[in-house]
Prior knowledge:
heterotrimer, A: 595 residues, alpha/beta, six-stranded mixed beta sheet, 20 helices, globular, B: 368 residues, abc type-2 transporter like fold, 2 domains, four-stranded mixed beta sheet, 9% strand
Amino acid sequence: MSPDAAAQVVLELRDVRKQFVAGARTLTALRSVSLSVRRGCVTGLIGPDGAGKTSLMRLAVGLLEPDKGQITVLGRDVTREAQAVQASVGYMPQRFGLYEDLSVQENLDLYADLQGVPPSSRASRNGQLMHMTGLARFTGRLAGRLSGGMKQKLGLACTLVRAPELLLLDEPTVGVDPVSRRELWQIVYRLVREERMTVLLSTAYLDEAERCDEIVLLHEGEILGQGRPAELREPLRGRTFSASSPGRSNRAFQKALAAVPGVLDAVIQADRVRIVARSGAQLAPDRLLGGIEGATIEAVEPRLEDAFVAMLRERAGAGEGRERAPPSPGGASPRDAGPAPRRGPVIEVRNVSRQFGQFYAVRNATFDVAAGEVFGLLGPNGAGKSTTFRMLCGLLPASAGVLRVAALDLRHAAAAARARIGYMSQKFSLYGNLSVRENLRFFSSAYNMSGARQGERIEWAMEQFELAAMAEMASQDLSLGHKQRLAMACALMHEPEILFLDEPTSGVDPMARREFWSRINALAERGVTILVTTHFMEEAEYCDRLAIMADGEVLAIGSPAEIKRGQRSEGHPDPTMEDAFIALIENRARGAAAT
Amino acid sequence: MWRRINALMIKEFLALLKDKRSRVVVIVPPLVQLLIFGYAATFDLNRIPFAVYNEDPGLASRELVARFAGAPNFHQVATPSSDAEIAPLVDSQRALMVLHIGPEFSRDLAAGRPGAVQVIVDGRNSNTAAILLGYVTTIADGFNADWMRQTGGAVTARLEVRAWFNPNLESRWFLVPGIVGLLTLLVTTLVTSLSVAREREQGTFDQLLVTPFRPVEILIGKALPGFIIGFGELTAIVIIATLWFQVPLRGELSTLYAGLFLFLFSSLGVGLMISSLAVTQQQGLLGAFLFMVPSVMLSGFATPIANMPLWMQHVTLINPLRYFLVIIRGVFLQGTPFHMLASQFWPMAAIGLVNLTIAGFLFRRRLY
Amino acid sequence: MSALSRMRLRGLVRKEFYQILRDPSSIAIAFLLPVFLLLIFGYGISLDAEHVPVAVVVEQPDVETASLAARFSGSSYFAPVFLSDLGEAENALRERRVNAIVHLQQDFSRRLRRTDGAPIQLIVNGTDANTARLVIGYVQGAWQTWLEQRAAESGVTPGTPLRIDQRVWFNSELRSRNYLVPGLIAIIMTLIGALLTALVMAREWERGTMEALMVTPVTMGEVLLGKLVPYFLLGLGSMALSVAMGLWLFKVPLLGSPWLLFGVSALYLLAALGMGLLISTVAKNQFVAGMVAIITTFLPAFLLSGFIFDIGSMPTVVQVITRFLPARYFVASLQTLFLAGNVWSVILPNIAALTVFALLFLGTSRCLMHKRLE
Lengths: 595, 368, 374
């Protein structure tokens, strides 16, 4: 590397390894990672939970010491000169590092004190930051009372009180609504432009990564790929297609397509199915349809997610030859293709509101879910999704309105009625120090199973969810993907008619997410009604119908295609789900301003 | 229903005992504390450091000093030879008591006049001082009786003291059974008061509530492990108390266990009530603490309830430990039969019932 | 490591104060808890038995028994019940309705005139040995005064050759509250000191703010001081409140110098806060920290500090254990300072021990706090 190029490198990791010892187990967070971040660039660190993103960030600011290798920040060795490095970088940890019981101004003052910002220059810098983040009106408000998006911006402002040369942001957009996410990106680019700042940020959202100058794909502690988004997408050119088959259920269609030999990946996207073809075999697009009647196919632009999934599949599939299609999680044979017969609403929500003091968590929500439908509730954190869920499950009384599940109000229903529903909560609520088998046994006993029947169901769960290999492991030691499988198995032990899934895929890598959705699809095919919440926009496309919520209100209801169609505009002739979502929120804000 | 309760109970046990930290918290401190506190908690004084300032050369004074020096509880540490040396000895706590015999003592006695002896006691710990003065009186009485017999003087009335149930008045016999109650309370409250809050924090409580479990089943399933642990631990502690500390067990074991059953019932009730009120484990911990400290202090464990002001005595009526201490001490030392303890049994049952009812009610209400 | 920065430290201290003001629980721990505990304990804990229920069994009443019985009915120590049947009295003793029986047999007055004298039988319930001893002492007192009174009336020389002249220094009335309240203050400060700080460090870890602090140029010494200073001031306030309650509500005399009291308390607070910070630094989790703080403070301070049970009477092993409790030294200092005054021979060794503990706890915490997450 020429000396000139070396000056351009702000952060460099060379052959870095990091392991954690937890009891008898050793977890490898990073294995032999080398990367460099160039000055004035926005570099994105992309990967699922547990990929090692946070460890890498912490190593870079000297909060962790590498087991092996060298880390240099701004020409300084981080291990030896941690204090000096920390004085010249800005770092925002995952939960923004804010004191929630301090006001916006007090948080800023604290960090200004800690960073040694001279009092004379504070006023102008503060004003600038407040203007940039739009927080000027809220300086007296407690940080804990801010919305997720505002907290994130305050966290950012606190790391910027003394303009750092290198800014590290650890998952700055988790739990933040799409509008705030867009604003954050605007701020980041402004900093790069105006202050020549260098930014390294990590994220689990692949769509967000497209906005970075450079991307580092991290998976299980290793770098899978590195480069500009376009460079990473490039190998996929000519391998991505979108297929549709009118009159056929998109789930059945997706399943059929996934079984075609040349297809590497098939996911539902509203009323179409997106396909990634295997590499090497340059097949005619029609061959990918596997002879399904009436189906049409067209080539589409590759996305980063396609590249990521292709990389993972090809790595994992090298040995297996053909990636496993998860078996359908039921004994019964799936009904024939075609949408499930509608039998009238199974879940009814009529003018439901829920107040906490003066605050409306849910306001006047109304929707129905038909039997055998996959219904999604979409919205950012704090939109009222979980509150709606908890009311439906009878965990929380509604302040007003009528809720009915299978014609019953679960809050007052007899215990037996609860045996008809399955519930999987946000954090994959499992008993952490119980083993997989013990968790399964407990939840099956909770549903009155015993003896041979119980044994049978446990065996079924072990087999269907591929948990047998870790049957005796404590559930807290499982990876997030396995936890999710176990939680779902627990919720399905008693073969419920209705399944409630609260953010079932948050933090789970794209592969596990695909597997999860194929299970959901199989269940829906068997007539199970599924209500699911998510804040992943692309997952909304997998639902039959969905309701978009924000600030406790339902903004739109309909099939994914209907919702996107509803928000078509001159600027966005073919809006994505995120575009539609932002448009809905902005319309609402405009409506509120008008009244 | 029982199958579900059984499953819940097994789960609670596994959750509690599989975690090394909570296993240690539940099992080790009670046993270690019983041993340490069993030795530490005694009002009996031994090796009382005392000094003698004897200005009298006579025989009688030597005889009196010998009685003190020979008593098992006393230990002579200094022999000051002037008034000025007394104060520093007491001030610095080197001597707890100073025996000052005036120059005329033997002569007075011989002449049939009462011989005065000054006893100076450090009153900083008034209880120790009072006990010490009791010892001094006993020695003085013995001296008097012997002197009268030797000189042929007439005795008018003499005091004959007998102590029932505890002839040597060993305070350990009183305190060790009390520690049994104390530790049982500590363990059961800690086990239960955090159990619901922990599930709430981990999100598993919601999961539990959407299964066919009824609140009463959850209540029973959560209380049973506490019962079993409480029974096990109490049995161990009772064995240690009788075999190690040699506290006599005079009454029926069945009465003791009946009392234990009701005590566990009431303290688990309180624990579960705290638990159902607490949203976080920290609140649960604080609640357990705020319940435990006053109930130990106001139970009659170390200081008799009868010594409290009347209004305070009324407050202690809602303290389950108060009743259990009466029962366990009665059964251990007095061999009190079941029927005489009825007045102690029913209040515990009532406290337990009220708390469990509230807890069961709160399970469903406090979910937001 | 850069030197201590005034600006950073001021920022941290101010932040901590804001947090204390906004979080009512630490204010409650500092000011409501001591009031609550002092009231409960100050009134609830007393070793002074008064109005002890005693059954006086007189089998054959006459002038002599009447004058002896009058000693019991006239004293505030006793709440006598007069009975004529021993069996009835024994039942009352078994049922805990009375604590003792004073039994005067049929021929009491006749035997009084014989040379071997008349026996006064005293049966006490020995279950509570301490109370039993007090009762025996009270009865002895009643009996002695009765003898003296009889001697004075009949003009003969007093019956007792040896007369004990008791001088109780520092607490002449033997009010147990006088020694319990200083001890209580010590226990309360132990609890508060540990509880206040045990949670604060763990809270920073749990909320993820510690990570944000660490990447600023702040040093860990500053973080530690930033925690210590506010809670130290809060603890002093709480100490002042407790002392004020002791002096004016419970009327405990303060013979020593208030400045010395202040100094010793400040030193002890440093040790107690240091212990809390140490627990908190090691645990990094509010739940574990709280649990450890309660287990290691309350019962040991209650039972092993010399607050209620005499350390000198414990077996040697246990006495050695008590040496590792800072509370022990503070209890001893407070009892002396309140009741005996500035006795340097007692205070100085205790001050030395407390200094060692404060340095040990704070030093260990400082050493364990790295600017690393491992």
